[in-house]
Amino acid sequence: MNKPIRNVSIAVIVMIVALLANATYVQVFKADALKTDPRNNRVLLDEYSRQRGLITTADGTVIALSVPIDSRLKFLRQYPREGAEAFAPVTGYYSFQYLASQIEHYENSILNGSDDRLFGQRFMDMFSGRDPRGGNVVTTINPKVQQAAYRAMLNGPCDGPCRGAVVALQPNTGKILAMVSTPSYDPNKLASHDQEVRESSWEAWNRPGDTAQPMLNRAISQLYPPGSTFKVVTSAAALRDNITPGIRLTAAPSFPLPGTNVSLPNYGGESCPGSSGGTVSLETAFKYSCNTAFAELVTEKMSDAIPKFTETASLFGLDQPGPDIPMPVVDSTVGPIPSLDVLAQASIGQRDVRLTPLQNAMIAATVANGGVRMQPYLVDKLQSADLRTLQTTPPSTANKPITPEQAAELTSMMIESERSTAGAGGPVSIASKTGTAESGSSTDTPYAWYIAFGPSSNAQIAVAVVVENGQFGADSVGGTVAAPIGREVINSLVGGGSR
Predict the structure, then answer these.
(1) Which is nearest to 286 in space by CA: 235, 321, 328, 344?
(2) What is the pLDDT of residues 343-371, one digit of tens each?
(3) pLDDT averaged over every residue in the chain
(4) Which of 16, 388, 426, 428 is deepest in the core (most CB within 10 A)?
């Protein structure tokens, strides 16, 4: 073979090898990336050619389904005709144009039928000639509690409908019974096959600078200063340091922060109620939410206060990776605490302390569960289209931040706190802590918080409520704004119980 022909042959062989290598790279190594690329409409067209699985609540109520239509896209995703907004933070949306969010996104492979666990179903469908179908997702949501939480936020003591979030947990399992974020949106409009409806809705719900942010899931994706609700964690740190609820603390209206010229005041600049000789017990300080007492507690009464405080917060889940429920949850944090003055501010849930509503509900649930922190979860089980169970989520213990005895002491303190809160009393005994956290200047409407569980013994539900727009402006507090909403959610599940 002469040299020119040999060179041409080598070049052809090199190109064939390169072609094979590229084909292998694209089909093997890049397959998943190309499949999930939002610009790949072929995958979406394929998904819309088969029936997507159901999303249901714990009792079987369908909150997302696909119905056949006569169109290029053979199926249309539908959510409840009435109440879709209530369940939107759970289901998310499934849209040809805007893809998917929440469970629709994070359980997409089950719902669209491509998950490896559905291989047997796909194999049988192929040989039986049956149209391929997706699997089902059964959530832990209690529809009665979810709808009660959403209604309470719409009709709460706010400047218009409440802006904020509610999370309810089953303390002994970690099941998420309700997850509400308001204002909300109608996922049916994003699932519509009418492009004009989709685009106008998307534009209306994603306006730059809009404080409403209806598509923001405030329950798991927004961080707030927790205010005095964080005194539950601070009190737990003190109990872990062998401090008793009877310890005497200052009742002064203000407390000088160590190493600074600044003083930390009580709410309204008042002395702590129930004082004797200028002091109050930790239990009384907790009951009346006295800032100065807690500042003295962490700066003067606790030993090795900073590491003890941060360790306790970590045990409750702060400064740890947020759980996947399966949606990712933003990490809650106490922030850096380099000095005692910062510690004093962090002890009352201010400074750099930031929590999601889910995290604050977990704190209440841990106390309710005798000091055992359970991993929260939203998906109870996955099913094939013929309702065969593919996977069940078992309750999982995260850790034990406090002992049962310490949890009982905190419960007693929270019961007393509830009794001193406006509007207390009702069909079930509740243990709670309110909080009011600065959102900006002193004239801005603060964040109003309420964390609680009920019944106070053998608790069946723990809740966290945060409201951004209380109707009393700068005078909006957790006890008058968030507490009525939290009680309504608790009573929706256990309101028929005895006190």
Answers:
(1) 235
(2) 999 999 999 999 999 999 999 999 999 99
(3) 92
(4) 428
Superfamily grouping for domain 227-387+394-494: DD-peptidase/beta-lactamase superfamily (3.40.710.10)
Residue type, 315: L
Q: Are 142 and 59 in contact (CB under 8 A)?
A: yes
Q: Report yes or no: 313 and 319 within 8 Å, Cβ to Cβ.
A: yes
Burial of 226 (0-12, 13-18, 19+ CB in 10 A): buried
Phi, psi of 280 (to 5 degrees): -135, 160
Cα distance between residue 58 and residue 258, in whole Å: 51
Q: Quick check: is 228 catalytic? A: yes
Please state, in angstroms and rounded to a whole number, the distance separating the CA atoms of residues 303 and 297. Answer: 10
Structure tokens at 451: 């964390």
Q: Is 43's pLDDT higher than 50? A: yes
Who has greater pLDDT, 35 or 425? 425
Instruction: Give me the residue spans of the domains in the chain.
Output: 227-387+394-494
Per the listing, tokens 């949106």 go with 185
Give me the catalytic one of 66, 192, 201, 228. 228
Four-residue CA torsion sign, 270, 363, 101, 79: negative
Burial of 71 (0-12, 13-18, 19+ CB in 10 A): exposed
Q: How far is the C-alpha of 358 from the C-alpha of 356, rounded, in Å?
A: 5
pLDDT of residue 498: 36
Residue 19 above 80 pLDDT?
A: yes
Q: What gap in Å lies between CA 481 and CA 499, rounded to an integer?
A: 24
pTM of the model as a whole: 0.90
Residue 7 above 90 pLDDT?
no
d(Cα 31, Cα 11) in Å, to the nearest integer? 28
Task: Give residue 206's Cα distance to chain centre.
Answer: 21
Q: Where are the alpha helices (DSSP H) in 53-101?
A: 84-91
Average pLDDT for 191-210: 95
Rounded CA gap, 474 and 492, in Å? 30
Predicted confidence at residue 120, as pLDDT, reads 73
CB-CB contact of 93 with 78 (8 Å): no
